[in-house]
Write a structure and sequence with these properties.
- By secondary structure, the protein is an alpha+beta fold.
- The chain folds into 2 domains: 8-71, no CATH class; 77-155, no CATH class.
- It is 36% helix and 22% strand.
- It contains 5 helices and 7 strands.
- A 5-stranded antiparallel β-sheet has the order 4-7-6-1-5.
- Strand 2 (93-94) and strand 3 (99-100) form a beta hairpin.
- The longest helix is centred in the first third of the chain and has 20 residues, at 8-27.
- The mean pLDDT is 84.
Length: 159
Amino acid sequence: MTENSIPKWASREYARGQRMRALADERGLTYSALIDAWYWGDVELEQALGSTDSLPMPSKESEAMCMLGFSGHPIEWVAGWRYGSIPAEGCSFNYREQHWERGISLMAIDGDDAQTMEMALTEAFNSDRPIIKIRGLRTPWCGSDGEPLVLLANEIKEA
């Protein structure tokens, strides 16, 4: 995978999300309601999206890519940094609230200057952990502490 290329599976999930948005708008459904109808065997949805029986169990990252396509958010590569390594699941886990985030949390995206009080506290408590430079797809979502989230995160190796 080159620096700014998207893997085929991610492009497929993003495109599926875009098709789902068109169908949801046509039917006046939310993302969750559309997913429910599809998984319960709605014939028209199966014709448009494929049978749910043939789909692999979605990973956290593939589900987030589908939701990114559904949201209509453009593909935009950004760089930033975080404390610690990139989670293998492709999404960060929020231990305080016990749920998965919709991407990998970063402390900051290069060029953005927004920082919440929670992020400042996180920075203070994690200053002994290594800083990892990251490149990934910007999402429209924030983590529960207000931190930016990215998908398809890769570590930027210093030359």
